[in-house]
Amino acid sequence: MLRALAALLLILLTASAAAAQIRLKDLVEFDGVRGNDLIGYGLVVGLDGTGDGIRNAPFTEDIMTNILERLGVNITGEQFRPRNVAAVLVTATLPPFSRAGSRVDVTVSAIGDASSLFGGTLVMTPLNGADGQIYAVAQGAVLAGGVAARGAAAQVVEGVPTSGSIPGGARVEREVDFTLASLPRVRLALRQADFTTAVRIEQVINSHFGRAVAAMQDSGTVLLDIAATRAPSAAHALSQVENLVVDPGSRARVVIDQRSGTIVMGEDVRISRVAVAQGGLTLRVEETPQAIQPNPFSPGETVVVPRTNASITPRPGVGMAEVAGGTSLAQVVAGLNALGVGPRDMIDILNTINAAGALHADLVVR
């Protein structure tokens, strides 16, 4: 697995060398051109006995009561015990410049003890923005992301059956007030703040227009003067800017995901010359209880006597191995591969190398 990871890193390194130029639209966010998060609380109906238990999720009964009363159904004093409904949270992102009547995708997630949303239908649910206003209304059949099967003594779950999506499931009812054409200047916010990248963006834009129209404010902001571009509008200016290509600079970084054992290294990662010894112990405990019985027709009772065999075996290693100072990602990977360890052990080695001050990169552990 470690060799496969090394091969993948080498492929990524080769690809990055061939495609170092990145479009500006993939590096920055334009001021005002952003989405807005929406959230709502609703009810999924039509489940095949996999909904909320009313005793464990009383809020499901409350929303059912409210919906039925709005539809003119008098349920005063009635007792609800259905298993085909589930209370859910509905989330969506309102894209920039969305107009009334357009549709957006929504995500539906159970908040009670429902075991699956498969086959359910979301009842009309208002979606609110951060200001409390309703911007969209969601409704439709839920596409669940998994399946669950349960028997008397076992159950099997594949994927996440308590969460699903509705493509185009929400219709925009209110537009966000924003006029791009009224902006005299537009800020370009870098997704990864970096002084080198910011100054390169400034240079590329000014070179394209042949005059000073962009100015770097800090490591995360470049200011674009719309009037200086002589474009008919801000939208026309941004359409020219967003497709310009830039060679971004970035900090050397090693990202470690401890849950999956995944290690990703950036192209600029370097390691000083170090010597590493890595080993481990295997602890084995075996239980072989024995039953001792009395002789036939003699007084006494059967007794179970524990028998435990415990041993500790050192795992063979490569002793003290030298990792030569790497001047490229390929050399760093080759040096670490020389240790002959798996990804889990490699995580410990990288942590230790970083503690020794020999890892010249930001170590990010997730």
UniProtKB/TrEMBL annotation:
Q: Does the keyword Signal apply?
A: yes
- Tell me the InterPro entries matching this sequence: Flag_FlgI
Q: Which UniProt keywords apply?
A: Bacterial flagellum, Cell projection, Cilium, Flagellum, Periplasm, Signal
Q: Where in the cell is it found?
A: Bacterial flagellum basal body
Give one GO biological process term.
bacterial-type flagellum-dependent cell motility
**Coiled coil, from the record:** none
Q: Annotated Gene Ontology MF terms?
A: structural molecule activity
UniProt keyword Signal, yes or no: yes
Its biological purpose is as follows: Assembles around the rod to form the L-ring and probably protects the motor/basal body from shearing forces during rotation.
Provide the assembly information: The basal body constitutes a major portion of the flagellar organelle and consists of four rings (L,P,S, and M) mounted on a central rod.
Family to which this protein belongs:
Belongs to the FlgI family.
Query: What protein name is recorded for this chain?
Result: Flagellar P-ring protein
